[in-house]
């Protein structure tokens, strides 16, 4: 038997003699290691709230006070960097309309979701020019031109919208709006490659 082992056993023997009544303490666990399962209804409600919060956060269209516009007002907007010639062609309806959205008979909330989804879809399909028909809302009481006012307020908030202008008469006049949608990264790359080939 080694000296170290003899010393250890002697020490343990002395300890036992000195403290004959000492027993290990039983400690009750303070935290439940298994989470209690929530009822299915509660889980569904929590999931629905999480999805709603995510959608509201992602949908950037503000529902704050919207400045009313007159039913016959012309809507016009252009971001810095958009060439005047491009904007002029948009304003005159010279670009082909690749996608259309009609907001007639929709509530403000329905229109808000529709506009947001429409712009997203245009971007995903590389659509550059589109038309939103919102109507003039002349006879609407008590808020005339409500959807038109919303469009004027919402579109500048979407960075994908580079410019917009009230449409020409054949496309709905002041009851509709032309949109110029930002190029996707894929489209920018393709344009750069084509430009490079021409050199």
Automatic annotation (TrEMBL):
Q: What are the entry keywords?
A: Endonuclease, Hydrolase, Nuclease
Q: Transmembrane helix: present as a keyword of the record?
A: no
Looking up InterPro entries in the UniProt record yields: Endonuc_SmrA, Smr_dom, Smr_dom_sf
Pfam families in the record: Smr
According to the entry, every stretch annotated as the Smr domain falls at: 101-182
GO terms assigned for molecular function: endonuclease activity
- Report what the protein is called: DNA endonuclease SmrA
Organism, by scientific name, is Simiduia curdlanivorans
From the UniProt record, report the name of the gene that encodes this protein. smrA
């Amino acid at each position: 038997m080694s000296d170290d082992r003899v010393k250890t056993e002697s020490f343990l023997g002395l300890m036992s003699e000195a403290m004959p009544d000492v027993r290990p303490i039983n400690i009750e666990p303070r935290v439940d290691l298994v989470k209690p399962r929530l009822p299915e209804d509660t889980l569904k409600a929590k999931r629905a709230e999480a999805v709603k919060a995510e959608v509201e956060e992602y949908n950037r269209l503000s529902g704050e006070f919207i400045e009313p516009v007159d039913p016959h007002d012309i809507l016009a907007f252009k971001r810095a960097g958009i060439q005047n010639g491009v904007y002029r062609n948009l304003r005159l309806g010279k670009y082909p309309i690749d996608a259309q959205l009609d907001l007639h008979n929709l509530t403000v909330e329905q229109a808000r979701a529709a506009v947001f989804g429409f712009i997203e879809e245009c971007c995903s399909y590389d659509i550059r020019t589109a038309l939103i028909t919102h109507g003039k809302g002349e006879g609407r009481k008590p808020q005339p031109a409500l959807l038109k006012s919303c469009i004027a307020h919402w579109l500048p908030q979407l960075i994908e919208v580079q410019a917009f202008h009230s449409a020409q008469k054949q496309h709905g006049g002041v009851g509709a709006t032309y949109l110029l949608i930002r190029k996707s990264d894929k489209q920018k790359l393709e344009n750069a490659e084509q430009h490079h080939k021409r050199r």
